[in-house]
Amino acid sequence: MEHKEEHKSELELDHTLIETTHKVEHFYHDYKKQINIVALVAILAVAGYFGYTKFILAPQEKEAQEAIFPAQTWFEKDSFDLALKGQGEKLGFEAVAENYGLTKAGNLAHYYAGVCLMRKGEYQAAIDHLDKFSNDNELVGPMATGLKGDAYSELKEYDKAAKLYMKAAAMSKNKLTSPIFLKKAGLTFEELKQYDDAVSAYEKIKNEFSDAQEAQDIDKYIARATAEKGN
């Protein structure tokens, strides 16, 4: 009896598979043109991506690396105007960022341009470039975000500055960047008279980065913010 039920189940399964296959065949027959078009588009998209990467983006990347080199040299010599604007046929960071925006070098040029503009005191222009820069490196990413905080601080937009400092501190919890931006956040919170937040930022330095330079005199900052909080 059990054998017959198993055999029946197998027959039902076979029948279901045949029926499903039949339906698929009919579906393909009815919509063959549309299915083939979708498949062709998918193939072309994949081929196009690899073709674009190999034949367009890769040569552009190499060209961009060569183009950014003179600007980097000027930057290292603190010649920020030349680094930004270039000279003659040698491009500055602004032109590299504009002409090679899809490349890694073009992306990096936005960061360099932001630093140059900060040094020149052009804070909103610096923010505009830094907004276009993206990097998840554990040091460069936080530095770029913290630099935007500096720009907003110079513009006296302390709310934005404090948020960016805290964001920079949390992006990559390391003793090189996090304590720096936590301390800047604390000072900015004090400027905003948000003393609870200031104490919290300072205490993070004390508890999580006790061997950092910023932690050496952090008790003084905690005491000051705590006293202000009580007034």
Q: How do you describe this structure in short?
A:
A hairpin with a 2-residue loop joins strand 1 and strand 2. This protein has a two-stranded antiparallel sheet.
Explained architecture:
Strand 1 and strand 2 (about 90) form a beta hairpin. The longest helix has about 45 residues, at about 30-75. Helix 2 (about 30-75) runs parallel beside helix 5 (about 105-120) and helix 7 (about 140-155) runs antiparallel to helix 8. It is built from eleven helices and two strands, in the order αααββαααααααα. It has a domain at about 135-230: Tetratricopeptide repeat domain (Serine Threonine Protein Phosphatase 5, Tetratricopeptide repeat, Alpha Horseshoe), CATH 1.25.40.10. The protein has about 230 residues and is an all-alpha fold. It is elongated and about 60 Å long. It has a two-stranded antiparallel ribbon. Mean pLDDT is about 80; it is low at about 1-20, about 20-30 and about 45-50. The protein has helices spanning about 1-30, 30-75, 80-85, 95-100, 105-120, 125-130, 140-155, 160-170, 180-190, 195-210, 220-230; strands at about 85, 90. About 80% of the residues lie in helices and about 0% in strands.
